[in-house]
Amino acid sequence: MAKKSQENLLDHEYDGIREYDNPTPAWWHMVFIGTVVFSVVYYVFFQLGNAGWTVQQAYDNAVARDLTSRFQEIGELEMDGPTIRKYMDDEEWLTVGLAVYEKHCRSCHGDNGVGQSGPNLTDNNYIHIETLDDIARVIDQGANNGAMPAWGTRLHPNEVVLVSAYVANMRGKNLPGRKAEGDKVITSWPQPAADDTPAESDEDPTDPSDPMDPTDPEETDDADADAP
Questions:
Q1: 125-126/184-185 β-pairing
Q2: Domain ranges in the chain?
Q3: So what CATH class is 68-185?
Q4: Per-residue pLDDT reduced to its tens digit, 2-61
Q5: Is the dihedral of CA 101, 103, 105, 111 positive or negative?
Q6: What is the pTM assigned to this prediction?
Q7: DSSP sequence for 77-140
């Protein structure tokens, strides 16, 4: 047994230490080779393929399903000023606008809208904006020969409205960042429409022509004459 052990020693020696020839089993080599081959297939399939199984694609699909479900509550919003102004005060739906901004806008307009390659959104100066409607239009259609990309083909109309409301709320914060650009100065947005204000009647309560008007002297005399 000792002689066999001596035969399994390798020839090289380091500081009096000799290495015993004890190779790893064949199954270990097969597992190792299999993991290398699998990693190549995995990378090609998930990183270069179009199967929609990547983590990012799975996340995007989940977000899209969630938004579709939530948007059923409000229907498809109009991309106009009154609608944007309405949602500027809706904290729940502004979180959707924030999520859209963080995913699609922050890389150019910076954290909190302070500007990077894109303009600072927190001052009162604008290049292409004069009204709230224009914010949705620029996001939807783009501007400046493509420097501001058109997101209308990639975002749901409700996402355009809600991120417009979120961006509109940034105005006037004047956070330190990229210097103000544009000669259009907007110091305030219009107040929201009072949808729940009761409509005033056009009918004059003291109109003498009203047959039941108690202030009509003729009606009063007739009533006195008929009294028992």
A1: antiparallel
A2: 24-53, 68-185
A3: mainly alpha
A4: 555 566 777 777 777 877 777 789 999 999 999 999 999 988 887 776 655 667 777 777
A5: positive
A6: 0.60
A7: PP-SHHHHHHHTT-HHHHHHHHHHIIIIIHHHH-GGG--SSSPPSSSSEESS-SSHHHHHHHHH
